[in-house]
From TrEMBL:
GO CC terms in record: tRNA methyltransferase complex
Record field: catalytic activity: guanosine(46) in tRNA + S-adenosyl-L-methionine = N(7)-methylguanosine(46) in tRNA + S-adenosyl-L-homocysteine
Organism field: Noviherbaspirillum pedocola
EC number: 2.1.1.33
Residues where S-adenosyl-L-methionine binds: E72, E97, D124, D147
Superkingdom to which the source organism belongs: Bacteria
Pathway linked to the protein: tRNA modification; N(7)-methylguanine-tRNA biosynthesis
GO molecular function (one): tRNA (guanine(46)-N7)-methyltransferase activity
HAMAP family attached to this UniProt entry: tRNA_methyltr_TrmB (MF_01057)
Protein name: tRNA (guanine-N(7)-)-methyltransferase
Pfam families per UniProt: Methyltransf_4
Region annotation Interaction with RNA: where it falls in the sequence: 153-158
Entry similarity comment: Belongs to the class I-like SAM-binding methyltransferase superfamily. TrmB family.
Length: 239
């Protein structure tokens, strides 16, 4: 899955100067589109994909209703996103992803399942948060299996770092939640440390959280569990 880095090479927060050069935590890959993905982009993209703009998104106008809105950062191929949106029709969902095949895949699922409560933004999530999401407007944020950048020299590219979290939580309403999940133990430890150190967040569990019922177990995750690999969920609330 893709995700989006919060700091520049000097380790400074980047949310107050969008022109500042920064390290990104995703690599844009060309990727091959399947015929079905290309068709979904052409036929469903105009309806369900929101163009990136430097203006605040009106959730009620976007979805045609007022409802709690949840943002997912880096939805990959979109299977989990579609499952959650289908299981929670009373909520609005916005998925952010940079990779075109993933966008096409999720659009295909939206069409097949008739998911009217789901929209997509194909853009860097840092800029989406900065320019399109109003402060204290989100009921929740999902970040599932972001790239762990497991080599030590690449750790600086990881999404979950203090500057990013400090800005992200300004977009979550008081009482709203942040749900992260990873299958990389060392990254899970970093997540727990970073989230636990943020004074505006409160852990919903004593350490790692049980997997919430709304997050489905993916085929990849299930295969890893059978091989003895761990998966760690973290669910924090904004105070």
């Amino acid at each position: 899955m893709s995700d989006h880095s919060p700091a520049n090479a000097a380790g400074k927060p980047l949310f107050y100067d969008p022109t500042e050069r920064r390290i990104r935590s995703f690599v844009t890959r060309a990727g091959r589109l399947s015929t079905a993905q290309a068709r979904a982009l052409e036929t469903l993209g105009p309806r369900y994909c929101l163009p990136y703009r430097k203006e605040t998104l009106d959730f009620a106008a976007t979805f045609g209703r007022a409802a709690p809105t949840i943002l997912e950062i880096g939805f990959g191929m979109g299977g989990t996103t579609a499952t959650i949106a289908a299981g929670m029709p009373e909520q609005n969902f916005i998925g952010v992803e940079v990779h075109t095949p993933g966008v096409g895949s999720l659009l295909k699922l939206i069409g097949e399942q008739g998911l009217e409560n789901l929209r997509i933004i194909q853009h860097d999530a840092v800029e989406v948060l900065e320019n399109m999401i109003a402060p204290a407007s989100l009921a929740g944020v999902h970040i599932f299996f972001p790239d762990p950048w497991h080599k030590a020299r690449h750790n600086k590219r990881r999404l979950i770092q203090p500057p990013f979290i400090a800005h992200l939580i300004t977009r979550i309403a008081p009482g709203g939640y942040l749900h992260c999940a990873t299958d990389w133990e060392e990254y899970a430890q970093q997540m727990l440390e970073v989230l636990g150190a943020e004074p505006a967040l409160e852990n919903s569990a004593d350490g790692y959280a049980p997997r919430p019922s709304y997050r489905p177990v993916t085929k990849f995750e299930n295969r890893g569990v059978k091989l003895g690999h761990g998966v760690w969920d973290l669910v924090f609330r904004r105070r």
